[in-house]
Amino acid sequence: MPKTGSSRSPAATPRPAPLKARTLTAPVPTAVAKAALPSVDVIHQRVLTAIIEHRLPPGTKLGEERLARVFGVSRTQIRQVLERLAHDSIITVLPNRGAFVSSPSVEEAREVFAARRLIEPDLIRQASQLAQRADIQRLRQHVAQESTARAANDKRAIIRLSGEFHQLIAEIAGNRFLAKTMRELETLTSLVIILYDAPNVPACPYHEHSDLVDAIEAHDAERAAGEMLEHLRHVEASLDLKRGTNGDIDFDAVFN
């Protein structure tokens, strides 16, 4: 009997530790990778910025698969981004063809400026009445950034900053609905400038933003409104409403 008991005791037992180690460590890289993926909001902003800065010119096809690969996300998320851009008329979705960066026609370009001439004089009137010292300082700092971009001949920054200047005025005016409308009009204006900007002619005269800030600081609402109208006319007059943009775009170079 003792021998029988001793023969059973040394039986081999399984060693699952290595398997447990692999099971515990395998999901970690996946979790880290998911945490690093950009959100729909981030992708939307990056695509919008690329459009405003001329890196995705009008007419560029925004393929879901290409964008999903570049950003490392699903096509469903890219579809959400494209839906938001289409809602704001930044891109155009064509049946059986896909999504393209909008290419405003000459007529549409003129309509954009007509809309701005209706809206912006009243916005700057309100801004002139409501602007505080901190608002004026913010506008001055922004104009200084524009000057730096012009000195560096950074056309992408110039167009982006010019649009942001008008958006700042809309924010100071305090009307959220008109501010939202201005964001859409500014992006469409950027597309128009990309398409129709005349060579060697500044779309936005150098001194006019400073003049607008002077009028706001003086709380001279009518002067500010008049200068805004002239400013918008100058911008529209600087455009060559005959040109277009074509060419294949390297999405990896744009976003990486």
Would you give an account of this structure?
This protein is mainly alpha-helical. The chain folds into 2 domains: 37-103, Winged helix-like DNA-binding domain superfamily/Winged helix DNA-binding domain (Arc Repressor Mutant, subunit A, Orthogonal Bundle), CATH 1.10.10.10; 106-237, GntR ligand-binding domain-like (Four Helix Bundle (Hemerythrin (Met), subunit A)). It is built from 13 helices and 2 strands; from the N terminus they run ααααααββααααααα. It has helices at 2-8, 17-25, 27-36, 40-52, 64-71, 75-87, 106-130, 133-151, 155-173, 176-196, 208-217, 221-237, 251-255; strands at residues 91-94, 98-101. Strands 1-2 form a two-stranded antiparallel ribbon. The chain is globular. It starts with a helix and ends with a helix. Mean pLDDT is 83; it is low at 19-32.
> Helical stretch count?
13
Largest sheet: 2 strands, antiparallel
Radius of gyration: 28 Å
Which assembly state applies to the chains in this document? single chain
**Number of domains as seen in the coordinates:** 2
CATH class annotation of the largest domain:
Mainly Alpha
Strand neighbour order, sheet with most strands: 1-2
Strand content: under 5%
Low-pLDDT segments: 19-32
Concise summary:
By secondary structure, the protein is mostly helical.
Features:
256 residues, mainly alpha, Arc Repressor Mutant, subunit A, Four Helix Bundle (Hemerythrin (Met), subunit A), 2 strands, globular
